[in-house]
């Protein structure tokens, strides 16, 4: 193993890891937003919203994220959407992971027994009041862990933006593999950084999950 | 520049060929991941400590890093140690191993949840540990695990798009080649997406049927 | 307008799920302060009727009136939502499975709706919670979560929660059916106390003894119709209909 080479290039990997973290955070925020909107549509009273929500989930989970990214980044200009690679990465991945989060959020909400909603409604609460005060606080606790799984998947999928030349961890590893012919060393550098990010996120999710449990 | 789908039909043959490659690669990688998953699960559970622990570390690394990065490692790594395989073989190995690790996780849980009495019963009739695993425990575990493995296989189909990056001419790279000639990325990536979507729907349909079968057989 | 004889009025209530008729033209008057028990085999429609009174299960035909106001008015969606939320504040309901909010203490279970809907201050809400929980004998457990309470205690908190809205009418949907036998009595005691205070109550129950000792009237329902009704002394002791006799015979045999 070429330790000396690894020592020479690791600062570039650190910089790239920072880009990966930024991508992950922004994508997660957009994904949560899309997930909340998607779940709201899937659970809407109106059939047209339910259909739109179901179509969003089906299409974005039914096609490769890489293709979605390519359509947005390379095809976008044809329909007047000009984004730089980083922006396209965040939007493309965020909307993609939002489809998965939609199902996570919806799953948590519909798993709350219907008696809870009924109890709130019989007290005179409106649909929204019942949802906000009785259902959501319970569902939110159930969401933490599965959203953590989505987040784990999301962090790994940020590697896809290497294919549109965003200089994040995987792109950096690929470039150094090409120039040094040391695939194992470069994989090790990038891999360790990915695992640190994923491990830290996993711990944070576990901590949050413990925090929010009742008692 | 606008959109113009009239250019699509004349390039459809390239796309269709890519589609066949995608199906071939996905099926081959699925087989690797299925049998690999069983082997990995057995190693992770039953191999001697000296093999088991490093193996678990490797599994952990595979689950904690992106598939794309793993593909680069396998493709260029094999070249480095002097094995020059065609890109599609490297792609199948990379995809297959990646999902074998995920399948192994599922199969491990399933093996552990197969009733302990089953192993004991098999041993009392004189089967060796290996025979008991092969004939009694694993078949039951595999049945339990088919629905979630189905989810992994659907994920595998979509992730097969990544092997385009190491130069395998499947659906995504075929679309890219056509785009190189026509400068129509939106149209052809959309066409590629449509093909993926249709294959995906078929897989989901098959999965639902299998799940119903299993539900009945219980 | 107050018409004490027609405090709760059900006119030609009808409900069907597709072809299945669950309620067939049921009419019923309940006077203010009256306590009515509804008995009958499962699938008789008794719970559906109860849940129609506060529109948890909407009727497909007929009218429900409470204190001179129609509950199931025909209004556009938004107006109807407003109307029904207002009406439900006057109709307390207690469920078989308690349906307490698990993420709230007993106090918060009781005060959530009054704070939200009546704008009670924190101090007033606390006073209300203490008052209502005291009434059901749960004051010492005011800051406990539902998971820390027994079934009987949960149900008493659920009753306090319903009472905190100062309802005109209380509906009990098999309030003791999910309880272990030794916990039934503590809930029955609370309901008796309410009866003594002349709360108007409609009670779906399996407990004939309780119905006989507390209720002014008993309705026996079967297959979506009211087969027989009258004072408990008549319905339980000298039922006139064969179906009632058969049900009581089976039920009492089962209870022994």
TrEMBL record, chain A:
InterPro entries: AA_ABC_transptr_permease_3TM, ArtM/GltK/GlnP/TcyL/YhdX-like, MetI-like, MetI-like_sf. Residues 17-205 form the ABC transmembrane type-1 domain. This is Nickel transporter. It comes from Roseovarius atlanticus. GO terms for cellular component: ATP-binding cassette (ABC) transporter complex. It comes from the Bacteria. The keyword Transmembrane applies. PANTHER family: L-CYSTINE TRANSPORT SYSTEM PERMEASE PROTEIN TCYL (PTHR30614:SF0), MEMBRANE COMPONENT OF AMINO ACID ABC TRANSPORTER (PTHR30614). It is found in: Cell inner membrane; Cell membrane. One of its GO terms (molecular function) is transmembrane transporter activity. Belongs to the binding-protein-dependent transport system permease family. HisMQ subfamily. Its main location: membrane.
From TrEMBL, chain B:
Keywords: Amino-acid transport, Cell membrane, Membrane, Transmembrane, Transmembrane helix, Transport. The keyword Lipid biosynthesis does not apply. It is a multi-pass membrane protein. The keyword Transmembrane helix applies. GO terms for molecular function: transmembrane transporter activity. Pfam families: BPD_transp_1 (PF00528). It comes from the Bacteria. Residues 19-207 form the ABC transmembrane type-1 domain. Its main location: membrane. It is found in: Cell inner membrane; Cell membrane. GO terms for cellular component: ATP-binding cassette (ABC) transporter complex. InterPro entries: AA_ABC_transptr_permease_3TM, ArtM/GltK/GlnP/TcyL/YhdX-like, MetI-like, MetI-like_sf. One of its GO terms (biological process) is amino acid transport. The chain crosses the membrane at residues 20-45, 57-79, 85-102. Belongs to the binding-protein-dependent transport system permease family. HisMQ subfamily. NCBIfam families: HEQRo_perm_3TM (TIGR01726). This is Amino acid ABC transporter permease.
Automatic annotation (TrEMBL), chain C:
GO terms for cellular component: plasma membrane. PROSITE patterns: ABC_TRANSPORTER_1, ABC_TRANSPORTER_2. One of its GO terms (molecular function) is ATP hydrolysis activity. It holds the Pfam family ABC_tran. It is found in: Cell membrane. It is a peripheral membrane protein. The keyword Transit peptide does not apply. Keywords: Amino-acid transport, ATP-binding, Cell membrane, Membrane, Nucleotide-binding, Transport. It comes from the Bacteria. Belongs to the ABC transporter superfamily. This is Amino acid ABC transporter ATPase. The lineage of its organism: Bacteria, Pseudomonadati, Pseudomonadota, Alphaproteobacteria, Rhodobacterales.
